[in-house]
Amino acid sequence: MIWSELDSRLIAVSMDADTKDGILERMGGRFVELGYCKSSYIQALKDREVEFPTGIDIDGVGVAMPHTDVSHVNRAGIGIAKLKEPVTFIHMATDDTPVPVRVVFMLAVDDPGRHLEKIQDILAVIQDKKALEKIITAENAEEIINIIKEKENLQ
Fold first, then answer.
1. Number of neighbouring beta carbons within 10 Å of residue 14
2. Tell me, what's the pLDDT at 152?
3. Long-range interactions of 148-152: CB distance < 8 A, separation 24+
4. Which of 11, 25, 57, 75 has fewest C-beta within 10 Å?
5. What crossing angle do the helices spanning 115-126 and 141-154 adopt, rounded to 10°?
6. Residue 28 and residue 37 in contact, taking contact as beta carbons nearer than 8 Å
7. Using an 8 Å Cβ cutoff, are 106 and 81 in contact?
8. Structural domain boundaries, residue 77
9. Are 125 and 148 in contact (CB under 8 A)?
10. Looking at residue 154, what is its pLDDT?
11. C-beta atoms surrounding 51 within 10 Å
Protein backbone atom coordinates (compact mmCIF):
# COMPACT_ATOMS: atom_id res chain seq x y z
CA MET A 1 0.00 0.00 0.00
CA ILE A 2 1.76 3.13 -1.19
CA TRP A 3 -0.60 5.50 0.60
CA SER A 4 0.81 4.39 3.95
CA GLU A 5 4.26 5.51 2.77
CA LEU A 6 3.21 8.95 1.53
CA ASP A 7 4.56 11.97 3.39
CA SER A 8 2.63 15.15 2.62
CA ARG A 9 5.93 17.07 2.76
CA LEU A 10 6.98 15.19 -0.41
CA ILE A 11 3.85 16.18 -2.35
CA ALA A 12 3.67 19.35 -4.45
CA VAL A 13 0.29 20.23 -5.94
CA SER A 14 1.33 23.04 -8.25
CA MET A 15 5.02 22.71 -9.09
CA ASP A 16 6.34 25.27 -11.49
CA ALA A 17 9.34 23.91 -13.40
CA ASP A 18 10.49 24.38 -16.98
CA THR A 19 12.67 21.31 -17.37
CA LYS A 20 12.97 17.70 -16.33
CA ASP A 21 16.21 18.52 -14.48
CA GLY A 22 14.46 21.34 -12.65
CA ILE A 23 11.84 18.88 -11.41
CA LEU A 24 14.47 16.32 -10.40
CA GLU A 25 16.41 19.02 -8.52
CA ARG A 26 13.39 20.38 -6.67
CA MET A 27 11.79 17.07 -5.79
CA GLY A 28 15.10 15.33 -5.15
CA GLY A 29 16.22 18.26 -3.03
CA ARG A 30 13.19 17.81 -0.81
CA PHE A 31 14.04 14.11 -0.34
CA VAL A 32 17.59 15.10 0.66
CA GLU A 33 16.42 17.93 2.93
CA LEU A 34 14.03 15.62 4.80
CA GLY A 35 16.68 12.90 5.21
CA TYR A 36 15.14 10.35 2.89
CA CYS A 37 18.12 10.43 0.55
CA LYS A 38 21.83 11.21 0.40
CA SER A 39 23.13 14.29 -1.38
CA SER A 40 24.16 12.07 -4.31
CA TYR A 41 20.48 11.28 -5.01
CA ILE A 42 19.76 14.25 -7.31
CA GLN A 43 22.66 13.62 -9.69
CA ALA A 44 21.90 9.90 -9.65
CA LEU A 45 18.31 10.66 -10.69
CA LYS A 46 19.53 12.80 -13.59
CA ASP A 47 22.07 10.20 -14.71
CA ARG A 48 19.55 7.36 -14.58
CA GLU A 49 16.89 9.38 -16.42
CA VAL A 50 19.31 9.85 -19.34
CA GLU A 51 20.09 6.14 -19.49
CA PHE A 52 16.66 4.74 -18.57
CA PRO A 53 13.88 7.28 -19.25
CA THR A 54 10.79 7.05 -17.03
CA GLY A 55 8.06 8.91 -18.93
CA ILE A 56 4.87 7.07 -19.81
CA ASP A 57 1.62 8.02 -21.48
CA ILE A 58 -1.49 6.91 -19.63
CA ASP A 59 -4.37 7.46 -22.05
CA GLY A 60 -3.06 10.88 -23.06
CA VAL A 61 -1.77 11.92 -19.64
CA GLY A 62 1.99 12.04 -19.22
CA VAL A 63 3.40 10.58 -16.02
CA ALA A 64 7.04 10.08 -15.00
CA MET A 65 8.44 7.82 -12.28
CA PRO A 66 12.06 8.82 -11.71
CA HIS A 67 14.08 6.73 -9.28
CA THR A 68 17.60 5.53 -8.76
CA ASP A 69 19.80 2.95 -7.09
CA VAL A 70 19.28 2.15 -3.40
CA SER A 71 22.84 3.30 -2.59
CA HIS A 72 21.57 6.92 -2.69
CA VAL A 73 18.63 6.28 -0.33
CA ASN A 74 18.50 6.43 3.47
CA ARG A 75 14.85 5.39 3.81
CA ALA A 76 11.99 4.65 1.46
CA GLY A 77 9.61 7.35 0.31
CA ILE A 78 7.40 8.41 -2.55
CA GLY A 79 7.07 11.98 -3.77
CA ILE A 80 4.35 13.30 -6.05
CA ALA A 81 4.39 16.52 -8.05
CA LYS A 82 1.47 17.84 -9.99
CA LEU A 83 2.96 20.23 -12.53
CA LYS A 84 1.50 23.63 -13.42
CA GLU A 85 2.50 23.07 -17.04
CA PRO A 86 3.60 19.83 -18.75
CA VAL A 87 7.34 19.18 -18.87
CA THR A 88 8.94 16.91 -21.46
CA PHE A 89 10.35 13.57 -20.35
CA ILE A 90 11.39 10.75 -22.66
CA HIS A 91 9.09 7.72 -22.92
CA MET A 92 10.51 4.78 -20.99
CA ALA A 93 10.27 2.36 -23.91
CA THR A 94 12.27 4.60 -26.26
CA ASP A 95 15.38 6.74 -26.52
CA ASP A 96 13.76 9.78 -28.04
CA THR A 97 9.95 9.84 -27.90
CA PRO A 98 8.87 12.88 -25.88
CA VAL A 99 6.07 12.67 -23.32
CA PRO A 100 4.50 15.88 -21.95
CA VAL A 101 4.40 14.96 -18.25
CA ARG A 102 1.81 16.42 -15.90
CA VAL A 103 2.37 14.24 -12.83
CA VAL A 104 5.65 12.94 -11.38
CA PHE A 105 5.89 10.05 -8.92
CA MET A 106 9.44 10.06 -7.54
CA LEU A 107 10.64 6.96 -5.73
CA ALA A 108 13.25 6.51 -3.06
CA VAL A 109 13.57 2.74 -2.71
CA ASP A 110 15.82 1.37 0.04
CA ASP A 111 15.33 -2.34 -0.71
CA PRO A 112 16.41 -3.46 -4.21
CA GLY A 113 13.96 -6.34 -4.03
CA ARG A 114 11.00 -3.93 -3.76
CA HIS A 115 11.86 -1.66 -6.71
CA LEU A 116 9.53 -3.33 -9.23
CA GLU A 117 6.83 -3.81 -6.61
CA LYS A 118 6.75 -0.05 -5.95
CA ILE A 119 6.50 0.76 -9.65
CA GLN A 120 3.67 -1.78 -10.03
CA ASP A 121 1.85 -0.23 -7.03
CA ILE A 122 2.04 3.20 -8.65
CA LEU A 123 0.98 1.85 -12.04
CA ALA A 124 -2.08 0.26 -10.42
CA VAL A 125 -3.14 3.72 -9.24
CA ILE A 126 -2.34 5.76 -12.33
CA GLN A 127 -3.74 3.26 -14.84
CA ASP A 128 -7.14 4.06 -13.37
CA LYS A 129 -8.07 7.08 -15.50
CA LYS A 130 -10.54 8.39 -12.88
CA ALA A 131 -7.97 8.20 -10.08
CA LEU A 132 -5.35 9.91 -12.25
CA GLU A 133 -7.76 12.71 -13.20
CA LYS A 134 -8.61 13.20 -9.51
CA ILE A 135 -4.90 13.50 -8.70
CA ILE A 136 -4.49 16.09 -11.48
CA THR A 137 -7.34 18.20 -10.06
CA ALA A 138 -6.46 17.75 -6.38
CA GLU A 139 -5.87 20.97 -4.48
CA ASN A 140 -3.66 19.76 -1.64
CA ALA A 141 -1.40 16.92 -0.50
CA GLU A 142 -3.98 15.34 1.81
CA GLU A 143 -6.47 15.11 -1.05
CA ILE A 144 -3.89 13.26 -3.17
CA ILE A 145 -3.14 10.86 -0.31
CA ASN A 146 -6.87 10.19 0.14
CA ILE A 147 -7.36 9.55 -3.61
CA ILE A 148 -4.59 6.96 -3.56
CA LYS A 149 -5.82 5.44 -0.30
CA GLU A 150 -9.33 5.14 -1.72
CA LYS A 151 -8.04 3.56 -4.93
CA GLU A 152 -5.90 1.02 -3.07
CA ASN A 153 -8.69 0.10 -0.67
CA LEU A 154 -10.90 -0.80 -3.65
CA GLN A 155 -8.37 -3.30 -5.00
1. 10
2. 78
3. 148/2, 148/3, 148/6, 149/1, 149/3, 151/124, 151/125, 152/1, 152/2, 152/3, 152/121, 152/124, 152/125
4. 75
5. 100
6. yes
7. yes
8. 2-154
9. yes
10. 67
11. 7
| DSSP designation for 54 | -
**What does the pLDDT look like over 54-89, one tens digit per residue?**
999 999 999 999 999 999 999 999 999 999 999 999
Q: Which amino acid is it at 26?
A: R
% of residues, the chain, pLDDT over 70 = 98
Apex 152 CA angle, 129 and 93, nearest 5: 50
Beta pairing partners, 78: 6, 107
108 CB-side CA count, 13 A: 29
Count the domains in the chain: 1
